[in-house]
Design a protein that fits this description.
Blueprint lengths: L19 H8 L1 E2 L4 E2 L18 H7 L4 H11 L32 H18 L5 E6 L5 E6 L11 H13 L3 E5 L9 H6 L11 H17 L3 E4 L3 H10 L3 H9 L7 E8 L2 E8 L12 H9 L5 E4 L6 E7 L2 E7 L8 H6 L10 E4 L6 E4 L2 H11 L6
Parallel strand pairs: 3-7, 4-5, 5-6, 8-9, 9-11
Antiparallel strand pairs: 1-2, 4-12, 7-8, 10-11, 12-13
Helix pairs in contact: 2-3, 5-7, 7-9
């Protein structure tokens, strides 16, 4: 206390803290004004704005211990507001300037959470990404799904001639569709440099032109409704990280096809037969000794299906197996980027560009995979030779 008041409750009493009435008065006593405040719940004097008497102040004035004052308050059931240097009830001591239109935060937690919830709902309505999608192809002919990924459009070692040839093959083959499994563009932007400090940029054209060229290559497939679905790749994700623009999301919306994001499940009915395809650009537990090891683990630990499809490792592989007593087909997509400095530095061999094909029958549960694009589409044409005449 800077100033000791001359008059205070219990001044002439021997043991003022034992008197309930004296305790109640002291709890609402202003040391500066030397007056009582009517409202016992206030922390500051409405006249001078100073903090009201605390139990510690009372103990000093009464020449006793604060613990004694607190103990007798509990005995007499006296509610003494625990006053600190700052108000807890929203009241504040008066400053030198008496502001008339001081602006304060006039919002509640409930109002903030309500706005956040509405933004979450709006974001959910705006996104087209989904983890599972179902579709139906009304046909009595076998169909072919060309699993195409790791295009790496824009890289100097991408085989553009082979890529364009395979796109033309799909366009010229009835009942064939393309499943895009990510890494459509090379996309060596700022996000890639941050992630890979030793990145050697080998882009022929800038990222903006890579996206334009990809749109031009896919446009004929969009017109003929040949694209089945699109999955996000790690190179495509670099744009999402750097400027929050998901190029694969954009392509899927333009083509009006499902966008599975990082991956998901496609439930596809071909004629009268149901198939399920589990697709991701990459999955953990990759192996250089067992090309489809990650595919099998994906069916065991991620999502179950008839066919598993991955990419990312750049070498094609097709393998049949049984999991839980059911036949499965595992496909790993090859890259159209034959090599790069990263692969050469790590000791990887140049790859042969190809897009594996899986053929599905409409009248019975049967599927067969081809590692080579030309072989798969030729067999599809052979199966439908009588119907295509």
């Amino acid at each position: 206390m800077e100033k000791r008041p001359k008059n205070f409750p219990g001044k002439d009493e021997k043991y003022p803290w034992r008197n309930k009435e004296t305790l109640e008065k002291m709890s609402r006593f202003c040391l500066k004004c030397e007056d009582l405040v009517d409202d016992p719940t206030l922390e500051f004097c409405p006249k001078c704005g100073e903090l009201l008497c605390t139990q510690k102040d009372a103990a000093i004035l009464w020449k006793t211990r604060q613990q004694t004052v607190s103990q007798w308050c509990r005995i007499h059931n006296v509610e003494w507001v625990r006053r600190q240097k700052q108000a807890r009830t929203g009241q504040r001591p008066r400053l030198g300037i008496d502001w008339k239109n001081l602006r304060t935060r006039n919002v509640t937690t409930e109002e903030i959470l309500e706005v956040i919830k509405s933004l979450q709902d709006l974001r959910e309505k705006l996104t087209i990404e989904q983890e599972e999608v179902s579709g139906h192809i009304e046909t009595d002919c076998p169909i072919g799904i060309v699993c195409m990924g790791d295009l790496h459009i824009g890289h100097m070692h991408t085989d553009y001639e082979k890529l364009y040839k395979h796109i033309k093959l799909v366009l010229d083959t009835p009942n064939s569709y393309v499943l895009l499994v990510g890494d459509l563009i090379e996309n060596n932007n700022l996000a890639a440099t941050v992630q890979h400090q030793d990145l050697h940029t080998e882009d022929l054209i800038p990222t903006s032109m890579q996206k334009r060229l990809t749109e031009m290559l896919l446009h004929p497939l969009v017109l003929k409704r040949k694209i089945a679905a699109i999955v996000l790749g790690c190179h495509d994700e670099r744009s999402k990280r750097s400027d929050d623009f998901d190029f694969c999301d954009y392509c899927a919306e333009v083509a009006n096809v499902p966008y599975l994001g990082y991956g998901g499940k496609i439930n596809l009915r071909v004629g009268q037969t149901d198939y399920s395809l589990v697709v991701r650009h990459k999955f953990p537990m990759q192996s250089r000794y067992n090309a489809t090891h990650a595919n099998k683990q994906m069916l065991r630990f991620y999502l179950d299906g008839d066919i598993s499809i991955t990419a990312h490792m750049h070498e094609a592989a097709v393998e049949e197996c049984y999991i839980r007593g059911e036949p499965k087909l595992n496909i790993r997509v090859a890259a159209y980027k034959t090599s790069d400095s990263f692969g050469r530095a790590k000791g990887f061999n140049p790859v042969k560009p190809t897009s594996p094909v899986v053929i599905l029958w409409p009248d019975r549960k049967r599927f067969i995979g081809f590692r080579e694009t030309e072989a798969g589409l030729d067999y599809l044409k052979y199966l439908n030779r009588d119907r295509n005449k």
